[in-house]
């Protein structure tokens, strides 16, 4: 994730910038761009910007080998690790950062609230619930919001055009205008 890249960089850990070092995979275009900004060479980008998408891309890659390092946060989901282990790869997870929930004041009056991760979904208050439309940045975050009793609009992909399409759908459903 971009957060893992930022944590790695903040710790001053070196990233391979040549094809002779470890190969790097990115869960999506945003993570690939964050890696590129550090000077690292990205060898694999998941077409579907999810952990399952990265697992699919890695397992289909003709030069996939292990062990596989997984820098991540303390609340990261495990489908990538599980799928790689199930395929016989050694996996070395490395927790680089902790996600600390912050209390939501609940007094924000917004037309829409974009929730960007399952860990962020945990912070959305249920009492009182937000007044604006909830937009989940993808299906995994949408599922986390539904588990908490919300009915979010779910972007098809975790990118700006898909999130904007969900915002448009929320606005249309509420009778909002285009202007």
In short:
It contains 7 helices and 7 strands; from the N terminus they run H-E-H-E-H-E-H-E-E-H-E-H-E-H. By secondary structure, the chain is of the alpha/beta class.
Describe the protein's topology.
Layout lengths: L1 H9 L14 E2 L2 H9 L6 E2 L5 H10 L7 E6 L5 H8 L4 E7 L14 E4 L2 H5 L10 E4 L2 H9 L5 E2 L5 H14 L6
Parallel strand pairs: 1-2, 3-4, 5-6, 6-7
Helix pairs in contact: 1-2, 3-4
Q: What this model shows, in words?
A:
This protein has seven helices and seven strands; from the N terminus they run αβαβαβαββαβαβα. The chain has 179 residues and is α/β, with parallel strands linked by helices. Strands 5-6-7 form a three-stranded parallel β-sheet. The protein has a two-stranded parallel ribbon with strand order 1-2.
Q: Calculate Rg over CA atoms.
A: 18 Å
What structural class do you assign from the helix and strand content?
Answer: alpha/beta
Strand content: 15-25%
Low-confidence stretches: none
SSE run: HEHEHEHEEHEHEH
Distance between the termini: 35 Å
Roughly how much helix do the residues carry, as a percent range? 25-40%
Q: What is the average per-residue confidence, as pLDDT, rounded to a whole number?
A: 84
Overall geometry comes to elongated
Give the tally of β-strands: 7
Strand order, sheet with most strands: 5-6-7
- In this structure, how is the largest beta sheet organized? 3 strands, parallel
Distinct helical segment count: 7
Name the features.
single chain; 179 residues; alpha/beta; three-stranded parallel sheet; two-stranded parallel sheet; 36% helix; elongated
């Amino acid at each position: 994730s971009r957060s893992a890249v930022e944590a790695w960089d903040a710790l001053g850990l070196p990233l391979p910038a040549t094809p002779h070092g470890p190969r790097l995979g990115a869960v999506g275009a945003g993570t690939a761009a964050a890696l590129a900004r550090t000077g690292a060479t990205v060898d694999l980008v998941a077409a579907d910007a999810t952990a399952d998408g990265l697992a699919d891309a890695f397992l289909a890659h003709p030069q996939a080998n292990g062990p596989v390092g997984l820098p991540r946060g303390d609340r990261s989901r495990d489908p990538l690790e599980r799928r790689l282990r199930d395929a016989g790869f050694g996996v070395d997870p490395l927790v680089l950062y902790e996600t600390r929930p912050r209390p939501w004041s609940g007094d924000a009056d917004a037309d829409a609230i974009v929730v960007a991760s399952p860990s962020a979904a945990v912070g959305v208050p249920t009492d009182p619930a937000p007044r604006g439309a909830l937009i989940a940045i993808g299906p995994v975050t949408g599922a986390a919001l539904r588990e908490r009793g919300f009915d979010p609009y779910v972007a098809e992909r975790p990118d700006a055009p898909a999130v904007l399409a969900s915002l448009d759908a929320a606005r249309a459903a509420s009778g909002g205008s285009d202007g």
